[in-house]
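EI: anyone free to look at a 411-residue chain?
SC: sure, send it
EI:
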Amino acid sequence: MSAIFCGIDWAEGHHDVALVDGDGAQLAKLRISDDSAGFHALIELLVRHGDSVDDPIPVAIETPRGLLVACLRATGRKVYAINPLAAARYRDRASVSRAKSDAADARVLANILRTDRHTHRPLPDDSEAGQAIAALARAHQDSVWDRQQMINRLRSHLREYYPAALVAFHGPGRPGLDSPRARVILTAAPTLADAAKLTRSQLRALLKRGERPRHGIEAEVERLREIFRADYLRQLPQVEQALGHQATALVRQLDAACTSVAQLAAATEEAFLTHPDAEIITSFPGLSVLSGARVLAEIGDDRERFADARAMKAYAGAAPVTRASGRSHIVVARTVKNQRLASAGHMWAFAALRTQAPRAHYDRRRAGGERHTAALRNLFNKLLGCLYHCLQRRTLFDPDRAFTSTVDLAA
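SC: here you go
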């Protein structure tokens, strides 16, 4: 194992590098640029101090992302992403004067590895395919969130001058403002005055361009005509026209968001289905191709990443936290967790309730006095543990083995 440790304090335009030995003495420091020349200068510095393929010098840095981190991981060395808050506490150990510099921060990061390397875990050694799926799945999830924000903005705007559009498209049992039907009609008729002028033939043509309603085009035409010709509060004509122009712009942005969601979903599904873990993950109840891709994106395909199933559960926020001090002993839900995995897990457990074994597990937890959220989180905890063992053993999900015994409610 290398007796040299590297710390990198990264910034947007440059990075400060520090090397320390096993006794904490600083061997070298260097400021490198954030480009290819800077990266090669860093590698040359590491090589001069004993770096080799068989014994690479480990690196500590305060971010798990970026080109520098990706290139360092590609060299096969261990890269440790240190939480900036933790690094700040280590800084106080070295100096109480509150002095701070980029070079000193790089030295602090190197010393973190020297003294407490065993308490930190390196970035996972995920495959190239696994990293690509992670990028696509996270981008798709972000695009879904962006689409919802655009829907909320459009909804709030329509409330200001065009309540008929909300009656027609927004709410339970209605297609939604993001539906092709709603977007086509709002583009053609951005104001109530325009909508009231639409004839049956025009509405029929617009619906054919958007999407065909389940209950038939003619019934939808009559429904929309009745809504658009009803009596509503109105803005002044010129004000309504101006707000209509704004609505048109918002609909265009919503169109782009919906297109991004569809394209990223297709790319994510295509990449995920070629991964060797896809068959195992989608064998679990409640996991589709997209939700399975999100789970794989967050847990990765490095089987050494988690020491055991409990570590994966803690990472996902499925395992509770015990706080005991004196006579106080409480068990609470975990708040420090991978939020993306926790979000995917909530939907996973909820969807799994459609199958018999997970539903029985959930019902037993509810009968034991747990609330819906706690019982759902416990089901996610159970399924995640099963997923860990299935991935380790390369076997598909078996409900008879996963839910064999009665759940111990005190566990």
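EI: Residues 407-411 have pLDDT under 50 and may be disordered.
SC: 👍
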